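Continuing the batch. This is chain 6 of the set; chains 1 through 5 are on the previous pages. Same settings as before, nothing changed between runs. Recording input and output for traceability.
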Amino acid sequence: MFFQNIIRLVHKGFSKSFSTTYLEASHHQRYKCYGKDKSRYQLASKLSWFTIAMISGILLITDLNPPATLAQSNSSLTKLQNRSTPKPNRNNSNSINNNANHNFQSVITQMKRSKRRWIEVRIRSQRLYAWEGDRLAFRSNVSAGKSNSPTPTGLFTIQSKHNTAPMSGEGYNIPDVPFVMYYDGNYAIHGAYWHRKFGVPVSRGCINLDPDQAARLFRWTDVGTPIVIRE
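Output for chain 6:
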């Protein structure tokens, strides 16, 4: 409707401009100037109809190829974001962010400012740190996963706690594992009474603690306590 009104105004403007000049002239002037004004009027009419034809063509193309709606634009943006966003690791369903390039230092800075309790595990040094904001509550040696069964890194939270729980898998079956804190599927921080190699990576992916240290951490944490596991 907007473009139709523009077309009418364009044609009306050309027509009125030349027809008014023609009608207001005297009979003698009209006769004398008729040929020149008529030629100009015919030229203006052709130009106005040419303009109308061009606008009509633009409208026809617009009808055949309508602009994308807001929903279509959002859909395209979502597809672009899905292509550019790294997919989460299915083996670490509780991981907040398992991107290998994740900036753990910025996360740790936020944790320290929060004043809440949180756990930090450093794989290379085989150490666990229990923090209350930026205050270190205690620390302990751990045994993380071996090279053929590594402990996944990432940001997690404790999902459930058990005083004892059975654990089994390929090549092992341990009935009463003490002070188990599951944080991602079958991965847990727990006590280990079957070895004393804390500080050396010997586990099948879990984080082993001396039973006394595991008991202390178990009492100190709650379900939902954040865990940062990094290299």
